[in-house]
């Protein structure tokens, strides 16, 4: 996550993972929400940089980026697994 520390990354990861879980109608635990939020933020930041967009800093913008990235990860996981986990 850009512009936030490790503790804030864990907190934002948990929030973003939970929001993505609610949006995508998925059922995961707290640890998976944290992992999903952090990895989602990393993936989405990489995607934004690859298309030439500089990801905005700050915790609000990174939370939005993390939610979108986490939703993308859930979507891709469902496409690979072929179920609604």
TrEMBL record:
> Which organism's genome codes for this protein?
Hansschlegelia quercus
- Quote a single Gene Ontology cellular component term: plasma membrane
> Where does this protein reside within or beyond the cell?
Cell membrane
Which Pfam family, just one, is annotated for this protein?
Transgly_assoc
- Transmembrane ranges, per UniProt, are 6-23, 30-47, 59-80
Q: Which family does it belong to?
A: Belongs to the UPF0410 family.
Q: What is this protein called?
A: GlsB/YeaQ/YmgE family stress response membrane protein
Q: Which UniProt keywords apply?
A: Cell membrane, Membrane, Transmembrane, Transmembrane helix
InterPro entries reported in the protein's UniProt record: Transgly_assoc (IPR007341)
User: Please, which domain of life does this record's source organism belong to?
Assistant: Bacteria
Q: How does it sit in the membrane?
A: Multi-pass membrane protein
